[in-house]
Amino acid sequence: MQWFASVLSRYPELAVYLALGIGYWIGAIRVRGFTLGGVTGSLLAGMLLGWLFAVPVAATAKSLVFLLFLFGIGYEVGPRFLSAMKGDGWRFAVLGMFMPVVGLVVAVFVAKMLDLNPGLAAGMMSGALTESPAMGTAAEAIQALPIDAITRERYLAHIGVGDALCYVSGALGVILTCTVIGPKLLRLDLAAHALEVEARYGIKRQRHGVAPAWQPFETRAYRVPAGAPIAGLTVAAAERLIEGARLFVHRIRHDGALVDVEPDTTIHAGDSIAIGGRRAVLVDVVGGRGAEIDDPALLDIPMASHEVFVGKSRWAGRTLEEIATSDEVRAVFLRRIRRGSQDMPIGTRTTIERGDVLTLVGPEPAVLRAAQALGSIVHASDTTDFVVVGFAIFLGALFGIVASVTVGGITVSVGTSIGALLAGLAVGHIRGRRPLFGRVPDAAVKLMQSFGLAAFVAMIGIGAGPHFIVALRESGLGLFFGGLLVTMTPLLLGLWFGRKVLKIDPLLLLGAISGAQTFTAALAAVQEKSGSPVAVIGYTGAVAVAHLFLTTWGTVMVMVMA
Question: Can you give the pTM of this predicted structure?
Answer without folding.
Answer: 0.76
